[in-house]
Every structure is written in structure tokens, then in C-alpha cells.
Design a protein that fits this description.
A six-stranded mixed β-sheet has the order 4-5-13-10-11-12, sandwiched between helices. Helices cover 34% and strands 14% of the residues. Among the domains are: 203 residues, Rossmann fold, CATH 3.40.50; 101 residues, Rossmann fold (3-Layer(aba) Sandwich), CATH 3.40.50.1100. The protein is α/β, with parallel strands linked by helices and 451 residues long.
Length: 451
């Protein structure tokens, strides 16, 4: 007997997508555009289970009907050339043939994220004793984090499926991205975050004017609430719940851009922060797809994962040789990574072990020190997640687990202006002086190396 479709977190069968059977669309009594039609999601052909391999049609599904494993998007890619990509828009839609999005996505109202800078970090490399180090600085996205990428893809898929509300549970950056993307697209947003988030992230979500809910609890509490709400509101697309397979594909564009910006080649090593773990897994998938399409030469790469010690379930599992990631209660300044039960944790372990990488964690003090190091050497003010990533890079170098001579890319996934509280105690703000030359000299600011 076939299990009923796990649509929107319920046991009820979902809309008759891709069939000729009449039925309600997304909880309404009106026939919708999905009924009897094929979803226009580019070269995506269906969904496949990451556990048992079972396949299903495209639609708002996220769990396998056979084993309840997570689903991901499958494709039938055409021939894609470097020239065609390079002629595309300077955002993630240049990779539209490799994403589950409608063919006209570049002309739709989106925040147009992506194509952020890949910065050669020579000063930082010299300080760390490395030969070639690059920083993929995703703080340059529209709401200043990599989440704009995944939300843009989720929104494209959700609107194609007929959803009318874009929603999410979030540790902050995703809330910013969802609220902004929904505002640009002219649809309603509903975002929920833990109430103890950084004030900067609270404000930069509220400003967009959508429905904004703060919850007295951890991110995992918020996520459980979102799953319950998804079952109650059939017209709400929770980007990281019921349209998660499409949402997660947006992280591939980090991998695509890194390879293109390196001159169509893959780095030997990449260090990625871990929250849910999807970013790391999908960067690896992006590298694999480029190689399979002949867009880059086949060569090995190693993937490393970074967590804060106050929320390090994947690092703990890696260190102990476990295949299962045991949930933890987060307690860290790196709140954007504070997911105690990461959905993609087991797949992170698969990737780092397969590629010969590792997962490690660093203390909050090391996070702050690394934020300051990145700012001092490269002029980049990274969020706490960026401090985690650089901190783990330093730790892996010291432990001899990361090759200092191999070309390495690290991800700075967000802007330090969103996490000011984390660094405020560690910086010194000078006392104001009078606006005179004498006051400047008396304060010692004209001395060699002073100021």
C-alpha cells in the first residue's frame, strides 16, 4: 500500500499535480494552475529520496512516501556552456538552467542575489602561513547574507506552485531574506524567529512590513511551530519546510560562482559554516554538477565544516565517528548557526568523509578573535558565522588537518553589522577629543603606529 503524500506536514493527499484529476489547489475550492498542468521548473524532472532513491513528481513535497526520507530535486540537464553562463545576468539567474526555476525567472521581480565577490586574501594568508586563500564574501547580497540565494529559488518554485504566502522559521538572516523577497514580489510574508536574536536582525526584518513573530524559545522550538503551521495553512510556502527541496538548491550557486570566479576550476579545499548543513552539502553538489557537465576539469576537492562549540552536534559526531547527529541545546554568540538538530547533519558527515575533509568547532572567544582578524587583514567585517569559519580554518591548520599549500576558499556568509553585540566588548572606542591639532597630538594619535 502506498503511503499518502506527506504534503505540508500532514497525512492528507496533496493537490493533484501533473494529473488530469480535478481537486482543490492548496486548500482552496477553486481549480488552480497546477491541476492538469506541468510545473515550469526548468530542467528539473522530479524529486528523489536521499535515503531510498524513490522518485516522485515535482510539487510541494519534502518527505518520501516510502521511507519519509528527505527529498531533493532531480534534473535532466541539457548541454550548458561556459559562454552561455557568462552571457547571463550578473546574479544567480545566470545559472537558471541548473536550478528548479521557471525559464523566465530573470524577468520576474526578485531581489536578484548572487555573483558576490571572491576576494583573494593575501594578507590573511600570509598571517596564517597559507599559499592561496580566497574569501567568498556573501555579505554583498541584497539583505547581506547568503540566504538571499536560497530564498530566491524557493520563491520562484513556490509561486509557480500557486502559494500565496512566503514563510519561514529563522535564526535571523533567513527572516531578513524572506521578508525582503516577499516585499519585492508583492506577496505576504510570515516569518518567525527566537525572541533573543540580535537586535540588528530583529530590526532588519521588521522594516519590511510583513507578519513578524518573535517566539520565546530556541530555533528548534520555532522550527517545530513552523511545521505545525504548515499543516494548518495550505497556501503558505515555508521555504525551509514544505518547499525545502527547492530552497536548498539555491546554495549550489555558491559552488557555481566559486568555480566560475576562479576561472572555471575547483578549489582544492573549501571551509563552510554549518547551521542546518544544507549549504555545505549543496556546495559539494554544485561542484559535482559542474564537473559532470564538463564545465570544470575533474579534480578532487576537500570539504570542511565549521561550527561554534556552543552548538556543535555535527562536529561532535565527526569527532566520535558517529553516523548519527545527536541534538544539542545551543548556547553560543553565533546565533545564525545555532541549530541544535541540523536537518542535513548526516549528509554533512557523508560529504566531509567522502572528500577527505573534517568538521571542527571553536569557542566564542575564538569566533570574536577571528572576526577581528578578518577585519584587520582584509577589511571585511564578517558576521559571527564568518568568525566561526575563519576560526575553524585556523584550528584545522594548527592541527595539520588542512593543507596550507592547497588553494582554499572560505565562506563569509553574512555582514558583521548584524551581530554587533558579539564584538562590542572586544573593541575599544576612543574618547572624543576637541577639534584641535593640539588635542590630536596630546592624545598620541600622530605617533608611529598609534591610533
Amino acid at each position: 500500500m502506498t503511503a499518502q503524500s506527506p504534503l505540508l506536514g500532514t497525512n492528507q493527499p496533496g493537490p493533484s499535480i501533473g494529473t488530469n484529476q480535478p481537486g482543490p489547489l492548496l486548500g482552496t475550492d477553486q481549480p488552480g494552475p497546477l491541476l492538469g498542468t506541468k510545473l515550469r521548473l526548468g530542467n528539473a524532472t522530479g524529486l528523489s529520496c536521499r535515503e531510498c532513491g524513490s522518485t516522485s513528481e515535482l510539487g510541494p513535497y519534502y518527505a518520501c512516501e516510502e521511507c519519509f526520507g528527505p527529498l531533493e530535486v532531480s534534473y535532466d540537464f541539457p548541454r550548458v556552456t561556459r559562454a552561455a553562463i557568462e552571457d547571463g545576468p550578473r546574479n544567480i539567474w545566470r545559472y537558471a538552467p541548473l536550478l528548479p526555476v521557471p525559464p523566465d525567472i530573470a524577468s520576474r521581480p526578485t531581489t536578484e542575489p548572487g555573483y558576490t565577490k571572491l576576494i583573494r586574501a593575501d594578507a590573511l594568508a600570509a598571517e596564517l602561513g597559507m599559499r592561496r586563500l580566497w574569501i567568498k564574501d556573501d555579505s554583498g547580497n541584497p539583505t547581506h547574507s547568503f540566504k538571499d540565494r536560497v530564498v530566491a529559488v524557493a520563491l520562484a518554485a513556490a509561486t509557480e506552485m500557486g502559494f500565496t504566502v512566503l514563510a519561514c522559521p529563522s535564526t535571523g538572516n533567513l527572516a531578513n531574506a524572506v521578508a525582503a523577497a516577499a516585499a519585492r514580489a508583492g506577496i505576504r510574508s510570515v516569518v518567525m524567529v527566537p525572541a533573543n536574536l540580535e537586535e540588528q536582525k530583529i530590526i532588519t526584518t521588521a522594516v519590511y512590513g510583513g507578519t513578524f513573530v518573535t517566539v520565546d524559545g530556541t530555533y528548534d522550538d520555532v522550527n517545530r511551530l513552523a511545521s505545525e503551521l504548515a499543516g494548518e495553512h495550505d497556501d503558505w510556502a515555508f521555504v525551509n519546510v514544505n518547499v525545502r527541496p527547492y530552497y536548498a538548491e539555491g546554495s549550489k550557486t555558491l559552488g557555481f560562482e566559486i568555480a566560475e570566479q576562479l576561472g572555471w576550476r575547483l578549489p582544492e579545499q573549501v571551509v563552510v559554516p554549518i547551521a542546518s548543513g544544507a549549504q555545505l552539502v549543496k556546495i559539494d553538489k554544485g561542484f559535482s554538477e559542474l564537473a559532470s557537465l564538463g564545465l570544470v576539469d575533474e579534480q578532487p576537492w576537500r570539504v570542511f565544516g565549521a561550527q561554534a562549540s556552543g552548538c556543535a552536534p555535527v562536529s561532535q559526531a565527526f569527532a566520535n565517528g558517529w553516523d548519527v547527529v545527536r541534538p544539542v541545546k545551543p548556547s553560543t554568540i553565533a546565533k545564525s548557526l545555532a541549530i541544535g538538530n541540523p536537518a542535513d547533519g548526516p549528509y554533512v558527515l557523508d560529504v566531509v568523509r567522502r572528500t577527505g575533509g573534517a568538521v571542527a568547532d571553536v569557542s566564542d572567544a575564538e569566533v570574536v578573535d577571528s572576526i577581528k582578524l578578518l577585519a584587520r587583514t582584509q577589511g571585511i567585517f564578517g558576521e559571527t558565522a564568518g568568525g566561526v569559519t575563519l576560526g575553524v580554518l585556523r584550528k584545522l591548520l594548527a592541527d595539520g588537518r588542512l593543507d596550507p599549500d592547497a588553494e582554499t576558499v572560505i565562506i563569509n556568509s553574512g555582514d558583521g553589522l548584524k551581530t554587533l553585540d558579539a564584538v562590542e566588548p572586544a573593541v575599544t572606542v576612543p574618547v572624543a577629543i576637541k577639534p584641535t591639532l593640539e588635542a590630536f597630538i596630546a592624545a598620541g594619535f600622530d605617533g608611529a603606529g598609534a591610533g
